[in-house]
Amino acid sequence: MPRKMTIRKTRIFFSVICGVVFIFLYYYIDYMENIRQIELGRQKNILISSGTFQTSLINVLDKHQFFSSAEQSQVAKAYAKLIDLKRLRPSDKYSIIFSTSRKFGYMVIRRGLKRYALFKKKEGGFRARMEPIKIYSQMKYSSGTIRTSLWISMADNGVPPPVILDFSDIFSWSVDFLTEVRDGDRYRVFYEEKKTKSGEMVSRKILAASYKGKVCGEKNAIFFRDTYYDAKGRSMRSLFLRAPLHYRRISSYFSYHRFHPILKYVRPHLGIDYAAPRGTPVSAVANGRVIYKGWKGGFGRYIAVRHGYGYVTTYGHLWKYARGLKVGKRVKQGEVIGYVGASGLATGPHLDFRIKRNGRYLNFLRIKYRPSKNLPRKYFKEFKKVYNSYFKE
Question: What structural domains and CATH numbers belong to the chain?
Fold first, then answer.
């Protein structure tokens, strides 16, 4: 290769390197100047205008009469590179910081766990950048003995309401907190709180929990990968809910010899009657498809849902159906499908709930817990380490 050609390539290479270094230093100095502006804003007397996006960005800027029409367009253009301005919502927050002499400092839009900061460029116009918000995690633990109710006992020990609700949801397939709770039962819960530096709560998540009851025995739950599992790696989420509604009492049990209060003779009652106030929401006990909706003789307003594994559940004496419910619609476990009533042959508001498998009626209260899924064996060794860190066997 000729020597002149080598020298020319070397010069080009060094020119490119110098250009890259120059660009880096330019933006670095500009970045540090932005940081300096923020720090100065914190130290000096400043005015802050803040709020949420009840309307568009342009209307927000116009409302504060802070920018000229040309500057408003420049601000919107800078932000549009990072945010879809048409999708701004009331949950998104903004702050505009300026000095007491009304000199612009910077603007911030907060969406979820991201901040979008906007600064004025030296050469004119505006530049925006995204800044992830730092999140700080803290482990929390609570344990106690049940007195009166789960809610009162956990709340008295300082457990936040959202954690109590999550706790009851986790065990809702294995513990009936309406009928099986007894004074002297014990609970334990490990949960993680995530907050911003300013102390704003971001999320709370239960990592492990246990309930030891006189009626239900001991139940442990661990969050692993995607859901909660028990000690054997079975999902805490059962194929069926414990009950299709929040009821006051069971007014009639499954029986082959039950005296009918209206017809006045003995005949089988192949379901469970849950007494509850008129209008109480009724939920599908498992994922499935609606196969019947309408009036059905003595059952009045009636719904039938087909599930997997040959199961069919029915819901009778309803007051009304959930909006949009129709035959053929797929419903999810826990989804409201109707409301308690006294239609058909009924002495008062209650739900007649029945379940059958392959055409044969079953006693729902005696169906054993059936997990919706099991943890894959390849994860079991890792799972046991996590489990034993909370509940040593």
Answer: 40-132 (3.10.450.350), 136-229 (3.10.450.350), 249-366 (2.70.70.10)
